[in-house]
Automatic annotation (TrEMBL):
CDD domains: HTH_ARSR, NAT_SF
Record key words, sorted: DNA-binding, Transcription, Transcription regulation
The protein's name in its UniProt record: Helix-turn-helix domain-containing protein
Domain HTH arsR-type residue range list: 18-120
UniProt GO MF annotations: acyltransferase activity, transferring groups other than amino-acyl groups; DNA binding; DNA-binding transcription factor activity
Superkingdom: Bacteria
Organismal lineage: Bacteria, Bacillati, Actinomycetota, Actinomycetes, Mycobacteriales
Species this chain originates from: Rhodococcus oxybenzonivorans
Length: 216
């Protein structure tokens, strides 16, 4: 059974974007997590980036150590966790790739990662994309507010302050789209989590101004 690694981006046609090999890998991962105890155990391990002993897992889940060891072996077989000896204890550590690989698998199965052709020919010709500047903040926050008004873009109910957004967004990953010199939308990346296993993982935000949506 395959270990947890990020498969290459789908290269097949969007109508059949999930390759058979990837489907087999993902099925193995999901089958491993078909046992609720295994899911709880993986959660405990992921919550302890420095590692947790089999004994501590047994206490946390209120099950016997032989049962924990059995489930740990199953999780290790597919690459969700690694197992190491520390003196007389067995220490279980989450595989950092699991933190990104497992969500990636769910997104791929649900079609979220279905990619467009490499060279789409239907993009609007009047849009310019450039890095966000300090002069864009008023437009950026206005468009943020228009996104809130849709009630589908975010759980946030008020537009965050400039200072809050500036602290949240990665400095080199802020972009705006312009049409005839007017900011029509923006895109940013923010760190997903401060936990070590999420290092290098970011979540994106994309907002399009009211009246500019639906153009591709």
């Amino acid at each position: 059974m395959s270990s947890v690694e990020m498969p290459a981006a789908p290269t097949t046609h969007p109508k059949d974007a999930l390759a058979t090999e990837d489907a087999v890998t993902y099925a193995g991962w999901f089958a491993c997590l078909a046992d609720p105890t295994r899911v709880r155990l993986l959660h405990q391990v992921a919550s302890r980036p420095a590692g947790i002993t089999v004994g501590e897992l047994a206490d946390a889940l209120d099950i016997g150590q032989p049962t924990v060891s059995h489930h740990v072996r199953k999780l290790a077989d597919v690459g969700f966790v690694t197992v190491n000896k520390s003196r007389t204890s067995t220490v279980v550590t989450v595989n950092p790739s699991c933190c990104t690989g497992l969500p990636h698998a769910a997104d791929a199965v649900m079609g979220v990662l279905t990619s467009r052709p490499c060279c789409p020919d239907d993009l609007p010709g009047d849009i310019t994309v450039r890095p966000m500047t300090d002069e864009d903040w008023n437009d950026v926050r206005r468009i943020y507010g228009e996104g809130i008004a849709t009630r589908t873009a975010t759980f946030t109910t008020e537009v965050p302050t400039r200072e809050s957004l500036d602290a949240q967004w990665l400095p080199d990953h802020r972009w705006v789209a312009e049409i005839d010199g007017t900011v029509a939308g923006w895109a940013t990346l923010s760190p997903t989590s401060g936990r070590d296993c999420y290092r290098g993982v970011a979540e994106n935000s994309i907002y399009v101004a009211d009246g500019m949506r639906g153009r591709g």
